[in-house]
Amino acid sequence: xxxxxxxxxxxxxxxxxxxxxxxxxxxxxxxxxxxxxxxxxxxxxxxxxxxxxxxxxxxxxxxxxxxxxxxxxxxxxxxxxxxxxxxxxxxxxxxxxxxxxxxxxxxxxxxxxxxxxxxxxxxxxxxxxxxxxxxxxxxxxxxxxxxxxxxxxxxxxxxxxxxxxxxxxxxxxxxxxxxxxxxxxxxxxxxxxxxxxxxxxxxxxxxxxxxxxxxxxxxxxxxxxxxxxxxxxxxxxxxxxxxxxxxxxxxxxxxxxxxxxxxxxxxxxxxxxxxxxxxxxxxxxxxxxxxxxxxxxxxxxxxxxxxxxxxxxxxxxxxxxxxxxxxxxxxxxxxxxxxxxxxxxxxxxxxxxxxxxxxxxxxxxxxxxxxxxxxxxxxxxxxxxxxxxxxxxxxxxxxxxxxxxxxxxxxxxxxxxxxxxxxxxxxxxxxxxxxxxxxxxxxxxxxxxxxxxxxxxxxxxxxxxxxxxxxxxxxxxxxxxxxxxxxxxxxxxxxxxxxxxxxxxxxxxxxxxxxxxxxxxxxxxxxxxxxxxxxxxxxxxxxxxxxxxxxxxxxxxxxxxxxxxxxxxxxxxxxxxxxxxxxxxxxxxxxxxxxxxxxxxxxxxxxxxxxxxxxxxxxxxxxxxxxxxxxxxxxxxxxxxxxxxxxxxxxxxxxxxxxxxxxxxxxxxxxxxxxxxxxxxxxxxxxxxxxxxxxxxxxxxxxxxxxxxxxxxxxxxxxx
Length: 720
Ligand code: BGC
Fold this sequence. Notes:
Helices cover 31% and strands 19% of the residues. The longest helix has 17 residues. By secondary structure, it is of the alpha/beta class. It has an eight-stranded parallel sheet. The protein folds into three domains: 257 residues, Glycoside hydrolase, family 3, N-terminal domain (TIM Barrel), CATH 3.20.20.300; 188 residues, Rossmann fold (3-Layer(aba) Sandwich), CATH 3.40.50.1700; 110 residues, Sandwich (Immunoglobulin-like). Bound molecules: beta-D-glucopyranose. Beta-D-glucopyranose (BGC) binds next to loops.
């Protein structure tokens, strides 16, 4: 619901604005690097891409450089927003130019990628999703917002709710995995956590839902690649997560880099206007992905920058992230009648609306250097990062080795065990060296004795802790992989430790599912630690020593072989020849069809028993219940998962689909009855003619502790 007072202020302001000033509001600028010559961020990227500069050199240069924030343009009303400006004093200085020295005094909005923490880094989103705990997701978003806003940030380019079924895609790290419901709930919790219900609070951070839409379905898992799928699949599996995050109140949306069926999202009117604004009623701001409007020329959909600007604005794009196409061409497009003044006013209004909602007009200076300092890495934030990491790490194998006993002699192996800075994972732009604690830092802090494994030496010890996996730069944007195998060095190390005959715990750091077959062979226990953030080491030790019982469950399937991607995800649709012993069935000659570790899987130091499943149709859908008991001897949190299956439908349906879940705490011997209410819309799908239908007839309900381990109840469902 629009606020009439704000709408009036927008209208009054629009009347005073010149055409140039309107265009200026649409432009988001990045800082240029100041030096002997002027180099834009994009030029640096190109130099890295073509090998003229290494990534490390570029990073050093960018972080050390004094940036030019184009103050003359700001004063002249040619900039509406900045990308990537960090620091309250710098922000206040530039905001003062906008507010006090530009003709109309329109404040800036400053956007930054706060993806999983600002200074206090929480686990990467894929890891955090394995906690299956919306309340936790919301709290870590709140923490991020408190720190980022104190450093002068007004808007984060998060949450990313791209359903990611292909772990070759590096950006799976930024998602909540392969399921639509989980991504939607994750996004909703993040939006609430960032924004609160009062955007004018100094610590409220506007959320920007991205990448709209279906970026996670990039063909072959290759970043920036095409997306092509049926409209049914798009509606059923890919759109719902964006819809949920938008309807949770997110005030901005970022269209994706990719095309969908040949139409790049940046110029896709069906997406940006018909679905987003007309169908979902979104009245916030859209902002392109970095340089994405100009890239419509590379897509071969725009003749030049002017043509790209015309198409994007007319499709429903409001702000141009750094390409400059809007700034350079919208004025002439309006004058030539290629873009209407109404269309331009609409885009400007959407941007001004967010600035008014955030209270930037009335209260533009929102933090100080002292506040900024006090907000970062507080004990409460560190404690939350540790809790989030404990709840995100998935125990994949345990042959009785864990939990470790106090006083056990440890041999520590693998370079990732000693590198705190690698623990933050992808997208941690404000992190400083030393912010994140490695496994070794954790051992040192607790004064636990250990000896290092070196090239020559296997030390005397009772157990090896062996770190393997990926460095932070190996997942995230532009980090797709054609092979998900462990490196040769990791495999050799694991083998060497196994040959010693002493027990091995493999601790896997990664931004994506990897092929962990060799670890399963060599290690007695495997902890999937992901990139766990600021409190990596302490949280790993909490779990290894049993001070905390592991509870996380996978939100993305782990392949046996890379060639299983992208078809091994849990909600694959049924085929006419399901994999079986017979040759002519849907399978591979050289790899199984099933993943090595399935969706929903994760071990604990206790055991659970499920019984007495029951399901019945209600007015609103289906009600289901089950009893779960802790049959072991330690407390535990169990993630109870409720799936359904429609065995005969008008279109081929998934093998199973997640409908609901609940995390429940149980003491030894305790049992609880868990109830789920599945709304009937969740059972529906689109028929061949794109009508939304819910079938009459049998619906199977499957409830349990992982997709492979469930009890079944049947419901005869009737629509009337
Ligand atoms: C990414 C976005 C990000 C933007 C701004 C792009 O390359 O795709 O996710 O928000 O950069 O940093």
